[in-house]
Task: structure prediction
Amino acid sequence: MRVFALPDLGEGLQEAEIVEWHVKPGEAVDADKPMVSVETDKAIVEVPAPFSGTIEKLFANPGDKVHVGAPLIGFEGAAADTGTVVGDLEAKAKKSAAVAKTSTPITEVKATPAVRALARSLNVDLSTVNATGPGGAATTEDVKRAARGPAPSSSNTQKGLRATMARNMALAHAEVAAVTVMDDADVDHWSKETPLLARVARAVMAACKAEPGLNAWYDGKSDVRTLREEVDLGIAVDLDEGLLVPVLRDAHKLSLEQLKAQLESLVEKARKRELPPDQLKGATITISNYGPIGGRYASPVVVPPTVAIIGVGRLQRQPVVTKAGEIAAHRVLPLSLTFDHRAATGGEAARFLNALKADLEA
Result:
């Protein structure tokens, strides 16, 4: 049997979940024909046949997670070395067993107090971590990698996008020093045709120009904040499968109408899972528009390396005091700004929120 392993899918991805098989044992396939659809942390990808042949065995079922380099499909015929095709499984199993017999179990893992604290916060057993640091010491990256590992199999285990979301949120919560400031924007002057998300996006552009400290990336390891000239705007999209954050590139160059059209297209593609992996990374600042679902204020999670995320609550009428000192019912938009206090000061956050509110009320 010639065994085809799950190839490197790019973007540093280490595993994928089987979504659907397009072939079955005994079926002949041509080179480059799609054999299986797999879901990664980024997108759904079709894996093509590396060559023509007859399928002998499928090594995973829909819903199973397969690591890069692990057996995926067995083809009829003798083992051969053809790049992505790995050697005979039986030989590999014997080699693995021999290695296991000669391996010495690790009884103690070297780690600094900071690494041990991170392991505790992420519920990672250091004895299970593959330590790659100097002298066999566990590093923060080793612990994070272990935290991202496959969860135990059970009927309630989250998979796919939800599992990815859970890991990313846990890691972000453990790392970021999050603080949230809130305010309201009186938008009673808006017309009924005003596109809310696009209008908020335009206000974010104005706020980034007024206070660029929040349109930035922060590297916690080196304690370096990099201000970004471009605004690559992340938009949180709620799906049944979990949360996706597609990115609108160079949003600062777009008019209100262009923002409206491109945001609608971006959200639609996200819901259909038609976005390429490179459009799901690299945001410099993010908007979470949860208001249409419900809620007024929130503390959205800042995901590194970004520094800030803007939460937009439910637009509704409420009493306000006008400039003339009268009480009137106006449409009010609740705003929440969560920022990483390691990279931005409270003053920077307040100035950003003031500029955001001022543009919305203009």
Summary: The longest strand covers residues 327-340. DSSP finds seven helices and 20 strands in the chain. Residues 248 and 262 are 8 Å apart (CA to CA). The radius of gyration is 25 Å.
